[in-house]
């Protein structure tokens, strides 16, 4: 199951490098793998597109869509409005710690 999850996020399960030798993008993928590993009912992702290349962002979209399609809730915080608009049913815009706008998918 671990090997499958690593492959799902685009990491080679046979890679023997230590964590310190991973690039920032690989570390981000590993964090996503850890978040989805046990299939939590609530998946919380904070700035998950940080350091991801285009293929990584597409992987993230697949992971989030899969989680949502299986009835899990996904809470995603991001400064990447394009990704939020594509993935979210509801977007809360915040300024100075307060919600200033809520957009629902129509």
Helices and strands in order, then pairings?
Elements: H1 2-8, H2 24-36, E1 42-46, H3 54-69, E2 73-77, H4 81-87, E3 90-95, E4 98-104
Parallel strand pairs: 1-2
Antiparallel strand pairs: 3-4
Strand count: 4
**Could you tell me the radius of gyration in angstroms?**
15 Å
Which outline best applies?
globular
Q: What do the pLDDT scores average to? A: 95
The count of helical stretches stands at: 4
Short description:
The protein is α+β, with helices and mostly antiparallel strands. The protein is 41% helix and 22% strand.
Task: For this entry, give a set of tags.
4 strands; alpha+beta; two-stranded parallel sheet; 4 helices; globular; two-stranded antiparallel sheet; about 40% helix; single chain; about 110 residues
Structure commentary:
There is one protein chain. By secondary structure, the protein is an alpha+beta fold. It contains four helices and four strands. The protein has a two-stranded parallel ribbon. It has a two-stranded antiparallel sheet with strand order 3-4. Helix 2 (24-36) runs parallel beside helix 3.
